[in-house]
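Researcher: Hi, I'm a grad student and pretty new to this. My advisor asked me to get structures for two proteins we've been looking at. I'm not sure of the right format, so I'll just paste the first sequence and hope you can take it from there.
Model: That works fine. Here's the first sequence with its structure tokens right after it:
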Amino acid sequence: MKNYIHILKRTKLFAGVGDDEISAMLSCLGARLYNYKKGEYVLRQGEHLSDIIVLVEGNLHIQKDDYWGNRSILGQVAVGEMFGEAYVAPESGALLNDVVATENSTVIFFDVRKIITTCSSGCRFHYLIVQNMFFAISDKNRKLVQKLGHMSKRTTREKLISYLSEESKKQNSSSFTIPFNRQQLADFLSVDRSAMSNELCKMRDEGLIAFDKNYFRLF
């Protein structure tokens, strides 16, 4: 697990905490490391969660399938990001979505009770971890608001423009890559893949964008 300390140091949860302090706190925070192969479920809808997970290698999708197998991708967990904070309160209930590894991934589980309760050894940086978790939750809420902004658009083109514009701003460039393939992007925006692909081609022909797989350029 210590091989991933350099990753943990760059996360919002451990912002401001040094390598030695992180190493010393892993046991204090009940850290457990798990590996998942591509396509495996990290968490399943209906499970109850008492941990916060941090992805240290790979990529995860938060998704939900309906009775007929139609899939919606609600979000992505990239390296250094955490998941589960919305479900660890006593009255939060069971998970509403699945969390699936889209490539071979490594995840560290942290016992939330040990995070929010200072340990007997009095770790110097424990209070900072609690503060960081609050800020990370605030950032996740902001991202949720952004997604709701995309979803509130009426047409497929409006949803694409909203999403691509946001990615351009986030990456501070008119040329960028997105973390989804075509089907995943359609699932994320809750649109039909064929209709979305047709709209992308129309936008390209009109000189609004250029693209190659998950690379985009806005004009």
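Researcher: Oh nice, that was easy. Here's the second one.
Model: And its structure:
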Amino acid sequence: MSATSDDLSSLAGRSSSARSDTKRTNERLIDALNQWVADHGAPPERLADVAQLAGVSTATAYRHFASVDDAIQAFVLQLPIRAAELFAESGRADGDPVEAFAAWNLAWVRACEEHGELAVHLRSPQGFLERRDEGEPVINFACAQIEPLLDRLDGDTTMMLFMWNVTSDPREVLDLRRLGWGAQRIATFVTRAVLATPDV
């Protein structure tokens, strides 16, 4: 069963209210977290720091998140959701299989540029395929976007998925950005690497 964006939203943060002011405060806290990382090059150690930057009380921040790690997870979970949004906006899902996969990779790279700096703080000791097989919601959500695209290509879907994960890890995407590579060049590199995956 694949995870939906609603499933992902429930993985971090306290139960959210439908009130618009509550949603705005939640967004302010996540934006402040992003700003903190941009300013300091590392995540904050205290939720109070995020609250201060967001211009809300620490008590208010704790009504939204149980800890700073909870806030970080809420931010990072935006990455696969954002990639899916960008891919949908591209209108390329039903086109040529290689072009559709290339469009997904470009959407993923752009989402990594927006949300990837904190992704390294949610690393797991388990492998990507193991986490997929165990039904981890974030991995399932990403796989639900990618696997149908890979199924349309010529090759072993599982091995191509493995290669996609290796080459599109947000840490690696950001490393290539630091080398001066643009989003299109990174996406093309990922696409070519996956298409060259040998059958086993």
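Researcher: Is there anything I should tell my advisor about the second?
Model: You could mention this: Residues 146 and 161 are 8 Å apart (CA to CA).
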